[in-house]
Structures
1.
Amino acid sequence: MSATSRLQTGSAFDPWREWNDHEGPMAAVAAAILAANPRNVQAWQFEVAEDRIEVFLDPAREEGALDPFHRELYVGLGCALENLVLAARANGYAPKVTLMPGDPGHAATVVLGSGTPDKGELYQAIPLRRTNRAPFQKRPIPDALLTEMAGLGDDLESSSLMLFADDAGRKKVGTLLIAATEEIVKDEEQSKDGYVWFRKSKREIEQHRDGNIIDTQGLARPISAIGKMLPRQSRSTADRFWLRQTRNVHTATAAAYGMIVVPDAADNACRVEGGRLLQRIHLFATARGLGLGHLNMFFVRSDRERQTGAEPRFTKALAEITGDRGEGLACFRLGYPTRPAAASPRRDLTDVVR
Ligand SMILES: Cc1cc2nc3c(=O)[nH]c(=O)nc-3n(C[C@H](O)[C@H](O)[C@H](O)COP(=O)(O)O)c2cc1C
């Protein structure tokens, strides 16, 4: 089964069709904007010269109470950076990356240099990668594949992968994710800040070219089609749907979880580097026929605890899980998908290159 369904029509999906039509440094940026990123807010901007590319945070596109310290936004910039580096190599550059080179918000400088074109399996997976929110099959992931995945960050300075594939580990992570989702939907500000990124109609999708859409919710096609015909869901209905999917589908069918750990999850360089590893893993999973769905609700709650001074329930539980490995930065579930995932919209290159 192909992990990727046919691309939807409309200009919001053109960046997936046209990603390979560019030359020089723009070819790398065209790949960068296809990366995973929180809630598909696409909080990135690029400055492009012949010999270098600068990657910046776009603070105007933040997630409010869901990401009060911009942890997720910087991880998303790291995901974009990984695609950028892979595409630069594929186009005959030898990119050299400096993380957080100066001003806050300046996530990376990439000096291009010249090299030998390398179009490896991760690069080829760039246009095929999708976040998969469908049920996964009851089929374990071979140990050898997980071991190979765990080695993907060996060249990185501070990021590594923790895997939870046994029953006890999966239960612990899954239970905590469900509990965190329950807290998010009870928190009106967080619930509202998530709802604003939902795009229902084709017109809205074409207008904004960002956010979450019905097609990417992992539903069977007829259910998606009905969902599109119905009136827009209220916030509370959308929250109930999300909690139900988290409980009955996303955690219930996860064959394994992965967690990116870094020495300091509040440090932007760690976040960007961890994002690179996250994207690399997602591309690797895609290349090997695995589905991957990002699930970060306990980090969202942990940051919220820090912001509001609430009892550090999730912060403590996460520290117990990661132990002396470091601090958790991003989490995802893995498994063999029962359905291909649909693409999410992307803004045009002209909107993100300054
Ligand atoms: C740091 C980060 C956090 C994310 N958190 C979640 C999450 O908690 N739940 C979820 O369903 N998707 C999550 N995602 C996936 C994004 O929503 C997804 O990447 C985005 O909508 C673009 O879709 P695509 O990955 O299919 O291109 C996250 C992605 C990143 C990079």
2.
Amino acid sequence: MTLRLSNQKPFAQGGNRLCFVHPEHPDRCIKVRRPDFSLADRRRKKGFPKNLKPLSSFDDNREEFRIMSRFEQYYGDRIFHHVSRCYGFTDTDLGAGLVSELIRDANGAISETLKKYLWDHGLTDDCQAAITTLCEFWQREAVPSRDLLLHNIVVQKGPDGQILRLVVIDGLGSAGLIPFHWLPGAVQHHKAGRKVTNLHKRIQDLLNQRGQSEFPGYHGLLLHDGRAQGKDLSPENQEHTEPHGDKTSS
Ligand SMILES: Nc1ncnc2c1ncn2[C@@H]1O[C@H](COP(=O)(O)OP(=O)(O)OP(=O)(O)O)[C@@H](O)[C@H]1O
Ligand SMILES: [Mg+2]
């Protein structure tokens, strides 16, 4: 069966994908490729020599599914405390959709990104503690990831607004040719440690920007909070942003 998404408003848009609430499972999301930024566009943007790679290697959904299957085998359930669970592919009228756990707060709202949280509240004690927990986990378990970007981490809150956990929802796996867990243990831990150090730097950079009036960039903001499904698709209610396809900025 093909799920209809085209009558729903996405709750978020990254540089590469649109994210929808699953029409049949409110606790899951479906990510599809942005129709305005095809795999061919993305490959073209990369330039030589990366543009020699096969088109499929530019597909985030395919790559994420492969990595998440490995994570489940390698770590078991404990990884899903800090990484959103993946449920595989489903057919949608916007193409193949990757289904994953949708992180929501206790009040039902889709959890906001760490970027948005820090922008709104600064580095609260609660948030500092949650960041420390995530970073210790990342380093201890030597989780392979790309740079830990502030818009790829969401902050799940409990009934009193207290932070329950930080969950990484994108940017997992390593770019190297050698499978990460074949590397010597010390190298794995060193690589994970570097990602943690960079995360602290990104947090500091964002906190330093807080004086300015505008939220920096469009990454990290939700289009709706998932409590009313956002079904109004009239053109004036559609938000558009430029595709960018790179994962290095926060
Ligand atoms: N499982 C989830 N639970 C809650 N929110 C999510 C989830 N997955 C994605 N989001 C929200 O959707 C936004 C975009 O999702 P995602 O990062 O997967 O898209 P992308 O196009 O791959 O991003 P990028 O621009 O980093 O390539 C995130 O910044 C986050 O706010
Ligand atoms: Mg992302």
